[in-house]
Design goal:
It is a single chain. This protein is mainly α and about 450 residues long. It has 2 domains: about 20-195, Up-down Bundle (Growth Hormone, Chain: A), CATH 1.20.1250.20; about 220-425, Growth Hormone, Chain: A (Up-down Bundle), CATH 1.20.1250.20. The chain has 22 helices and 2 strands. A two-stranded antiparallel sheet has the order 1-2. About 55% of the residues are buried.
């Protein structure tokens, strides 16, 4: 029985199979897995760097902020090149940079060295992340939530399998050798995988029949002139801030709450609370993206956002109240990551639904800078904690932002999206001035 399945009216000479787009998805996930540790394993290195060089924790964490700022604020530029050059060259370029970033960290002896490594890593991760997300959006318009969720899940859960090896290597060989070895390993894996990627041809995909989707491809300028874009941008900032705080500070929070060294005895193995929490959180973070993405494909992005953002806010409140208990810390940190990871599948899928995919690299690139704004709160969180003497102040603040985003998702987003789709149906096709100028040249 043939596995081929026609997605739409396929042009003469085209040989399309359903398995081809799933292969693209798998390769994209592999690329994302290879980039994940630059962000998610950073918390393991911070105490070792502080102990070795004696720098202030807040100064070291500036490197994390630089990484996220570069990754996010360059996304519109990367989006331009994604739309222009395609996925292969962009991912290969990013792979070289993610490998170089950790090699630089392995040799760094000053804060500026780590800041440089963070900036190089931000360029590399941004190039790979944006490319793979955009490729999933283009290949799966009928299952955007699931496809983007699986791709983003590779980034969220990709470090789960390597958290323990990295922690073990840091203990046995030191953080410098760990940076060097895993930098070469991860960069090499992404570089090889890059050459299997491509964008879909005309006629290889079809739109969803379940969701409100614009049949029009917006330009970046047109998208940024809509109310919907800025509503999504505001909601993205509100939700991503709490998750960024947890990613960067979980190890520090565990230490300050007194649960970092607690030995969790699960009868068949014993592990310290922090490495176990990190491993479980990566798994939950990875599960959340395809899970909530799949749910949103079936019940709508807006309803899914209400559920996820409310769960995130309540989870952070509970972590602040009960985090001193090691078991509560494990469970609640998992809830926080489960409810946070979905932002990267829901907002990207909604952007594709609302604005089309022809210029989605640039459009989602600008939208994704919301993550960079959230990253600004990471060092601020340290300062606020030191000023108040408790993490509860920080956690309750970001929980309030999550609940505000949930309110917007239920009270404002549905009617704004409906009106946007209705207007797009009556508008003429977008004109790509750059392409037009090139054609007349």
């Amino acid at each position: 029985m043939s596995t081929s399945k026609t997605m739409a009216a396929v042009g003469p000479g085209q040989d399309y199979s359903e398995s081809r787009r799933w292969l693209q998805l798998v390769v994209g996930v592999v690329c994302m897995v290879a980039t994940a540790n630059i962000q998610y394993a950073w918390t393991l290195f911070v105490p070792e760097i502080q102990e070795t060089f004696g720098w202030e924790r807040a100064s070291i964490q500036i490197a994390f902020t630089i990484f996220v700022l570069v990754q996010t604020w360059l996304a519109p530029i990367e989006g331009y090149f994604i739309d222009k050059l395609g996925p292969r060259l962009m991912v290969a370029f990013g792979a070289l940079f993610i490998g170089a970033a950790w090699v630089i960290n392995s040799q760094a002896t000053s804060l500026m060295g780590f800041y440089l490594g963070a900036a190089i890593g931000g360029i590399g991760v941004g190039s790979i992340y944006a490319t793979c997300i955009n490729n999933a959006l283009k290949w799966f318009p009928d299952r955007r939530g699931l496809a983007v969720g699986l791709t983003a899940g590779g980034y969220g859960a990709g470090s789960a399998a390597t958290i323990l090896p990295i922690a073990a290597m840091i203990d046995s060989a030191g953080f410098q050798e760990t940076f060097f070895f895993f930098g070469l390993l991860q960069g090499g894996l992404a570089f090889v995988a890059a050459w299997f990627l491509r964008s879909p041809k005309a006629g290889e995909v079809k739109a969803s029949t379940k969701l409100n989707q614009s049949r029009r491809d917006y330009t970046l300028t047109e998208a940024m002139s809509t109310k919907l874009f800025w509503l999504m941008f505001l909601m993205f900032i509100c939700v991503v801030t709490g998750g960024m705080m947890a990613v960067a500070q979980l190890g520090v929070i565990a230490q300050d709450l007194g649960v970092k060294e607690f030995q969790v005895d699960l009868y068949f193995f014993v592990m310290a609370a922090l490495p176990l929490a990190l491993m479980l959180d990566r798994v939950m973070n990875g599960i959340s993206r395809p899970l909530f993405g799949w749910i949103s494909d079936n019940i709508g992005r807006e309803k899914t956002m209400v559920i996820a953002f409310t769960l995130e806010g309540l989870g952070i409140i509970a972590l602040g109240a009960f985090g001193h208990n090691p078991w509560a810390f494990l469970i609640l940190s998992g809830v926080v990551f489960l409810a946070w990871g979905e932002v990267y599948s829901l907002f990207s899928a909604l952007a594709g639904d609302a604005f089309g995919t022809k210029h989605i690299g640039k459009i989602y690139g600008v939208l994704y800078t919301a993550k960079g704004i959230g990253a600004l709160f990471v060092p601020v969180g340290n300062l606020l904690m030191e000023a108040t003497g408790t993490w509860s102040t920080v956690l309750y603040t970001v929980a309030g932002m999550d609940l505000f985003a949930a309110f917007l998702a239920i009270a404002v987003l549905p009617r704004t999206l409906k009106a946007h789709v209705a207007r797009s149906a009556a508008m003429p096709p977008a004109v790509d001035k750059t392409s037009t100028a090139t054609a007349h040249a």
